Amino acid sequence: MIENFFADYKNYIVVPEDEKQEVNEVIDPKNYEAYYILTLSIFDSRIATWKDASKFEIDIETSIKMVLWDFNQKHREKYHLQLLELDNSKNYFILALSSKTKFDAGEDKECIDNIIDKKLTNPFYVGQNWFNLIGDKGRVSRKLFCCSFKEYIVEELNQTKKEGKNDNISEIIPKNGEIKLIKSSLKREVR
Prior knowledge:
- By secondary structure, the protein is an alpha+beta fold.
- The protein has helices at 60-74, 108-127, 136-141, 155-163; strands at 34-42, 79-86, 92-99, 145-151.
- The chain is built from four helices and four strands, in the order E-H-E-E-H-H-E-H.
- The chain has a four-stranded antiparallel β-sheet, covered by helices on one side.
- Strand 2 and strand 3 form a beta hairpin.
């Protein structure tokens, strides 16, 4: 075979659909139906604050960012997680969960527990060695996080949609840029 036969192989590379990764995907809140604020702490923790994790050679911030990036790549069709707060002097961190579908009333706890326990725990537990942060009780039950949550409701956006108000004039102007005046007859009620 000729040595330079495949010299232009780069023109024929096709990345498989599942392995395409969004580098800096901008999240538009309008694309999601439900939002939750999650507070996660370590179950049966061996550390008092996140600073103590350095004893176990774990960089908490880098670790969380890596797992969230991977989660968002794998589940971008359904969910998005964003780190809101991480304070090294505390023993918990706060995430925002955005879901493309609204959870049924009463089933939100089950759905969020499923996301945390089945989709998020293993990458932390094994992939980032967070099993070192929990005690024997946590290892036996293979539970990493204690999670509490509350639905995040944006009152301002919901109110303006309900009342038909638009704060942004660009929402009123049609895409083609034409503005038309509509004449309406003024009617007065005479008494």
